[in-house]
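Retry 2 of 3 after timeout on previous attempt. Resubmitting structure tokens to design endpoint.
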């Protein structure tokens, strides 16, 4: 293998992949070289390539231990690398934080788990049995003879945190779409708090949220939660005015609420959120809350705010604002209100509570990128290769993390990101979970759009998910829709991570829907999510009408898609009529009738998590998002037609029937 080919492998630059059609696709050398260049590698510098190859491979065998040592909790074996002639030397391992000291008189008779020949010397990797230690990260000192090294031992559990293994039902929502009880134009944490009471009354165990990430206060129309400013911070627009202690006896706030523009917003009943107007008004109200805090807060509350700022200093320091204390205050309020909602879930007996959603990337001009720019590639963004839903592939426009840079500082960036998103919730859904193994990079090569897969330190990123889930007592769901390598599916399953299935896509080779008994068990099963039409819109072909209305498809494409949809509907009816206990349904059956029958069928599956989408209960026709569009359709803006209370009242008998089936 020549040096460049070896560097491709060591740097995680993919060689080939299997397309959704089954075709094996090989990447050209030019494509792979361009991917390396995006990582800052000069592919024309032979000496530099040779040195980098040495640094990523041979030189690692000269270190006693890597900077991070993965130790499986079940076996407790620490890997050590030495010149085989050093086996007679004594070894000592100290873990100061645990008061642990382990000594070996010599290194003979230990299992050899690897070897490497360098300059005629055989280096061996040995497995040292060490004492049991708690799950987490532990700094350790390792000494063999006169050679000394420092490593961080990660004690990794076999699986992520688990809840009792039984079938559970929950609600899937986009928080901003909830009919706001305060009539301020956008769903907030008070609406979520009310929803926890409604869900628990129907014996639901969780509420699956959209990403709550920080967006752009100065550009409020950038509304996509999947292209955020920062994934480690919360969006202040979700703060409820009435839940804030600083709203009490706040004369300035009361005066603002009487202003004409606020009164007009309260009286409005728009189908789509006007983010410009909503953001301007809510930030004016936030300033009134903050000024009240500054003037009247007790010493106890001021200390609580200071403690929050100290605990979250790393992420708070990434914020950009003319008034940083105000920005910190908003993060504090958002965290407290989210925690209040999770507390309500727990007090009402919901086994999981809130499930957060982690976007696959961040915007290229946001705080996360700007403050961690050295971790990202140069000129590459992430996306997806061609698949049945996007024949031309996808470029999501999010900057790609350099896999080698992630290793820096014991993977601190990814650890902090996961921990931030597991705070004050009971679960975390990871969008496009395949990214911890490989990501499709999009870049320009010779003036044309090009792309390939780039591989990431899978074992370490998976270990972080396992460790952090236990520290935060959070279940993990991996969104694995699309092209998923077999090793990812196997690793997720063995790690106790829930997969994520959309019923629309659960098909046999013949095109018919899988039977209920064939649906995955350790899985979050959904009929629809934010990237596909809500059921009523799907059944009535409203999504196709919308695409034609916005000139996203031609008349011919509309007719073709309509015919395909009718065939899909017939398949769905065959599924329901086979599994259901209702009178036979037909193509002219009402959408609500078909949806109810489908939901009852799927409730009988063995899937451990079954999520009902509130959009479907509200009989929505308009999607919240049409993938592949940005300015054409008002994505991430459509609100629900009815209040949460009205939706639950109307669907009470359906929800009770689903609960009965799930618990039967």
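Retry 2 succeeded. Sequence:
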């Amino acid at each position: 293998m020549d040096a460049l080919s070896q560097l491709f492998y060591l740097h995680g630059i993919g060689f080939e992949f299997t397309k959704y059609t089954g075709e094996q696709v090989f990447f050209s050398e030019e494509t792979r070289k361009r991917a390396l260049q995006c990582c800052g590698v000069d592919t024309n510098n032979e000496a530099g390539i040779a040195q980098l190859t040495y640094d990523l491979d041979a030189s690692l065998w000269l270190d006693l231990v890597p900077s991070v040592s993965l130790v499986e909790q079940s076996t407790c074996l620490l890997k050590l690398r030495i010149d085989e002639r050093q086996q007679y030397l004594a070894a000592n391992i100290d873990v100061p934080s645990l008061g642990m000291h382990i000594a070996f008189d010599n290194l003979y008779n230990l299992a050899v788990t690897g070897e490497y020949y360098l300059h005629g010397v055989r280096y061996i990797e040995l497995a040292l049995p060490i004492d049991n230690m708690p799950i987490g990260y532990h700094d350790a000192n390792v000494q063999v003879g006169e050679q000394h090294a420092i490593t961080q031992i990660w004690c990794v559990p076999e699986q992520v945190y688990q809840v009792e293994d039984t079938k559970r039902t929950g609600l899937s929502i986009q928080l901003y779409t909830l009919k706001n009880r305060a009539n301020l134009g956008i769903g907030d944490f008070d609406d979520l708090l009310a929803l926890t009471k409604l869900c628990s009354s129907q014996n639901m165990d969780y509420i699956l949220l959209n990403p709550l990430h920080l967006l752009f206060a100065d550009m409020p129309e950038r509304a996509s939660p999947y292209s955020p400013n920062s994934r480690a911070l919360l969006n202040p627009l979700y703060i409820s005015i009435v839940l804030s202690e600083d709203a009490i006896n706040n004369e300035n706030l009361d005066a603002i609420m009487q202003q004409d523009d606020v009164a007009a917003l309260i009286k409005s009943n728009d189908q789509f959120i006007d983010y410009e107007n909503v953001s301007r008004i809510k930030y004016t109200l936030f300033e009134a809350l903050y000024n009240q805090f500054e003037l009247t807060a007790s010493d106890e509350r001021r200390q609580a705010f200071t403690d929050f700022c100290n605990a979250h200093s790393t992420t708070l320091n990434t914020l950009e604002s003319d008034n940083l204390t105000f920005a910190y205050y908003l993060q504090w309020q958002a965290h407290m209100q989210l925690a209040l909602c999770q507390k309500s879930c727990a007090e009402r007996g919901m086994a999981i509570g809130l499930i957060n959603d982690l976007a696959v990337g961040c915007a290229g001009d946001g705080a996360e990128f700007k403050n961690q720019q050295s971790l990202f590639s140069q000129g590459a963004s992430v996306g997806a290769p061609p698949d049945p839903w996007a024949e031309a592939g996808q470029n999501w426009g999010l900057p790609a993390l350099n896999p080698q840079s992630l290793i820096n500082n014991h993977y601190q960036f990814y650890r902090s990101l996961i921990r931030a998103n597991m705070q004050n919730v009971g679960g975390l859904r990871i969008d496009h979970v395949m990214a911890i193994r490989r990501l499709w990079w999009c870049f320009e090569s010779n003036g044309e759009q090009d792309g390939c897969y780039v591989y990431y330190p899978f074992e370490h990123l998976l270990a972080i998910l396992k460790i952090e889930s236990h520290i935060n007592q959070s279940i993990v769901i991996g969104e694995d829709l699309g092209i998923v390598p077999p090793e990812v599916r196997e690793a997720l399953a063995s790690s106790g991570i829930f997969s994520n299935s959309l019923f629309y896509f659960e098909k046999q080779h013949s095109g018919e829907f899988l039977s209920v008994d064939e649906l995955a068990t350790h899985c979050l099963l959904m009929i629809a999510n934010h990237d596909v039409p809500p059921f009523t819109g799907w059944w009535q072909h409203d999504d196709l009408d919308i695409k034609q209305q916005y000139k996203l498809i031609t008349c011919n494409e509309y007719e073709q898609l309509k015919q395909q949809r009718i065939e899909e509907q017939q398949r769905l009816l065959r599924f329901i009529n086979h599994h259901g206990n209702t009178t036979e349904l037909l193509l002219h059956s009402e959408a609500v009738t078909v949806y109810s029958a489908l939901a009852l069928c799927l409730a009988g599956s063995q899937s451990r998590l079954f999520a009902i989408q509130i959009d479907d209960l509200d009989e929505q026709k308009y999607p919240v998002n049409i993938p592949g569009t940005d300015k054409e359709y008002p994505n991430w803006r459509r609100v629900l037609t009815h209040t949460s209370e009205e939706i639950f009242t109307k669907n009470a008998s359906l929800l009770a029937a689903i609960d009965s089936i799930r618990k039967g």
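Attempt log closed. Residues 74-156 form one domain.
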